[in-house]
Amino acid sequence: MRAQPRDTGREEAALEASLAAVWSSRPGLLGWLTTVDHKAIGRRYIVTAFLFLALGGVLALLMRWQLAQPEGRLLGPDRYNQVFTMHGTTMMFLFAVPVMEAMGVYLVPLMVGTRNIAFPRLNAFSYWVYLFGGALLWIAFLLDMAPDVGWFAYVPLAGPQYGPGKRADIWAQMITFTEVSALAVAVGLVVTVFKQRAPGMSLDRIPLFVWAMLVTSFVVILAMPSIVLASTALILDRLVGTQFFNPAAGGDVLLWQHLFWFFGHPEVYIIFIPAVGMVSTILATFCRRPVFGYLAMVLALVGTGLLAFGLWVHHMFTTGLPRLGESFFTASSMAIAVPSGLQIFCWLATLWGARPRLTVPMLYVLAFLFTFVLGGMTGVMVASVPLDTQLHDSFFVVAHFHYVLVGGAVFPLLGAIHYWYPKLTGRLMEERLGRWAWGLVFGGFNLAFFPMHLLGLWGMPRRVYTYPPELPWGGLNLFSSLSAALLAAGFLLFFWNAWRSARHGEAAGPDPWGAGTLEWATSSPPPPWNFTRIPVVEGADPLRDSPDALKVAAGLRLDRRELLLTSVMAAEPEARESSPRDSVWPLLAAIATTAMLIWSIFTPWAVVWGAIPVAATLIFWFWPRGTPEDES
Amino acid sequence: MNGAAQSALAPGGAEAAAILSLFWPVTALLGAIWLAVLLVLALGLWRRPGAAPRRAGLAVGAATAGTVLVVIGLTLASYLVTRPLSAAAEAPLVVQVQGRQWWWQVTYPAEGDAPGFTTANELRLPLGRPVRLELAAADVIHSFWVPNLAGKQDMIPGRDNALLLTPRQAGIFRAQCAEFCGMQHARMALPVVVQPAAEFARWRAGQAAPAAAEALAVAGRQVFESRQCSACHTVRGSEAAGSTGPDLTHLASRETLGAGLLPMTRGALAAWTADPQTLKPGNNMPLVPLTADELQALTEFLALLR
Ligand SMILES: [Cu+2]
Question: Strand pairing partners for B104?
């Protein structure tokens, strides 16, 4: 056997040159389409998700405009029903879940000190499928064919009898796209965290954000099958005349709700848990101390992930289930306050006397605490069966979940974007613009959504395209709509800042915040191979524990993409493994999958004939090309 | 109808009052906790720099234990409030309400001497007597919600749900469908009239009778029977016996027209009959082309259905 080039003892410059030779993507469009670099994919994912946020936000503004006055005339009932369905579907399936996974795709490999995500081609495939699914939904909207049955698509309204046309099919199939892409990412992240951590990063040294993404990925893997089942059954009911949900033929309407919420409630935590990880990361950096109670925090994350599966019935308190059973779900729903509370108390202890630098990311963390805790309180209220019978499906609930999702997830996310922006682009976001945007977003949000609590108590139901003038709802609705304009202005500023800073921002250097986690150990933005030498971790806060020079591991081959596998518990080096090269097949497989899924809206035979190109692309994707076995 | 006719904060019934009596203390308690968290946050930021607090572990533990206690307390409290809400009352008045896209069918079964009858788009209840509403859905899921009287209860195809309530205050409340049910979900409301028992009994007797003789005598009756109207609507005493639309036997005695859409006036009746699709786009009553004379005759007939 020929001697293989290794990184041991090489000069830095020579080493980087050989790494660049194997890890860089081809230049130009082809490179863009074939890359499997988790950073390129992650960045793309993030940008796309924010694009959908902007689109969903425009829909929100349309709704606020329509509701600003009684008998509004901007949107008719048909258009309004499409708009609110699109808003919910876009925000949940095309923005919130993907953006959190995208942050994981970009950050987790960097934070655990490896060179690429596990299954990088699957990761690329996931992005394309997500993009095509989102495009399907929005093209349908532009063609006036968007789903109009709510993001929850309750049957029988979404069933064959009451949901004619292709609108509900487009919704159900779009779900399939997002299921596939979410599962693909989740699997990659789990394996990355379990097997590719830097040597020495034992379980108790994993950064909290990585723990959060790990728990989230498991929640994705466990929750998605339920919606796969539900949406498949819906498509079958609509397309081939099965009767899963038709009570006249022995089907059950509530079955849909159980399946949907068994997925739908954990989905909230799929969005929220990563956000919690972001909060912990930002706090630790700007308080210049580790988050108080690492073990408690990890247990709280895991506990939240587990409890997430025991709450779904609280979306169904008014469907007439047995009262005692419902009370059980009151208890479990309120119990989620315990791990959430624990985390909040730990953060308060971290902040206590730490005199954090009030940078924009920190401001978002403070906004998060203010808003999310309030949303948590109203969450306890809607968990109570008697209170929920009044609050359910009213504007109170609209207020509640926007407090939890925007306050609990979007605020931390905006903070996280400011925080990791230098890593993503090499430049800092402009601070003064960032503060203005923060003020508008935080203020505008609370002014727009707080009044909705009251509207709900005054009897205003959700999902109404208008209301009569004799009901006393006009004033607060107008106030809320005007405040929504402030919120929108804040987002506009944020986008402007992100856009401008990419070109004109101050250069950041590898570690502008003096943070402690590994992603800051490499340049900003990192090279395609992430780390020129694989770092070795000796504490929970590697960069702070050994500020001068990180220990590094050596012995990786340089003539192919190679990364280090370590053991699950102690992260002891186990093997060197090759990491796949760029490939166009994930893109082609995604195109074939898209064709099959869209075609199958029209005929069930598409599943048969459409599977052939999918199978073909998969065969080429996995065709063995003489990659040698991995070595221990 | 006053401004508080559809509000959970202005209870006119025992159940809504019980829920509200839980709502305020819970809101106060949770609001206080929220303020306490913000206060600790502010203090923590204010404090002079120093090491992490010494007894932080204890404080975090105590606060978590406190959370557990609050959760247990609130679970018990909400269970205790729930129980009487679903306890069967003695001899309640039974009324069947069926949700339809986008109106309500209301049936009073025979009770003692009082015969049963079906009407639509208005619910009347005697003051002070417990009521058992049997809730059903004809097409998709709807939800029955009259916030002043009780919490909501879904109407689900293939399932029999019930809602118990006891009105304690006379007046006109407004119910509104609370589960998204399609195109005109926003225009699916229902006046709920609570009146003293004697008045209710009179109303009930009147509703059970066939349509007023003076209405059946006018020319508009023939138009109604001969045009498509009779295929969908029932007017007891005439040949019209359709059931896909609301029963119109005593239409003009209702507070509103079109499931809470318009106050019941002659003008509203004419406008609806002439073009229901402009007033309530997408609803299940088609535009029936009529000459001006037919429209006038029909309106006269409908207005006499007292
Ligand atoms: Cu309805």
Answer: B99
Residue-wise pLDDT tens digits, A92-140: 999 999 999 999 999 999 999 999 999 999 999 999 999 999 999 999 9
> How many angstroms does the Cα of residue B154 sit away from the middle of ligand 1?
9
- CATH at B244: 2.60.40.420
Q: Which of A162, A351, A388 sits opposite B182 (nearest CB)?
A: A162
- B125: closest CA among B154, B99, B149? B149
Contact A156, A245 (CB under 8 A): yes
Contact call for residues A125 and A34 (beta carbons, < 8 A): no
Taking the centre of ligand 1 as the mean of its atom positions, its distance from the CA of residue B177, in whole angstroms, is: 5
Cβ(A500)–Cβ(A468) under 8 Å? no
3-state secondary structure A271-284: HHHHHHHHHHHHHH
Q: Is residue A386 part of a domain?
A: no
Domain count, chain B: 2
- Interatomic CA distance for residues A79 and A84, integer angstroms: 9
By three-state DSSP, how is residue B92 classified?
A: coil
Assigned domain for A253 exists: yes
Q: Residue A199 corresponds to which amino acid? A: P
Asked if ipTM goes beyond 0.90, one says yes
**Across-strand partners of B155?**
B142
**3-class state of residue A160 by DSSP:** coil
Count CB neighbours of A267 within 10 A: 22
Q: Cα angle vertex B24, ends A463, A447, to 5°?
A: 50
Q: Examine the pLDDT at B154 and tell me if it is beyond 80.
A: yes
Task: Tell me the pLDDT tens digit for each residue of B100-145.
Answer: 999 999 999 999 999 999 999 999 999 999 999 999 999 999 999 9
pTM for this entry? 0.95
Count of the separate structural domains present in chain A:
1
Query: 3-state DSSP call for residue A468?
Result: coil
The structure tokens 């959190």 sit at A100
Instruction: Report if residue A1 sits inside a domain.
Output: no
How far is the C-alpha of A284 from the C-alpha of A515, rounded, in Å? Answer: 8
Closest CA to A111 of A302, A344, A278, A272: A278
CB distance A288 to A357 below 8 Å: no
Tokens of A403: 């407090």
Q: Supply the range of the domain harboring residue A109.
A: 9-357+509-630
Q: What does the DSSP 8-state code read for residue A404? A: I
Return d(Cα A85, Cα A91) in angstroms, integer: 10
CB contact A374 to B (< 8 Å): yes
CATH of residue A128: 1.20.210.10
Closest partner CB to B71 (pick from A337, A381, A387): A337
Tell me the nearest-neighbour CA distance from B95 into chain A, angstroms: 17
Residue B107 Cα to ligand 1 middle (Å): 18
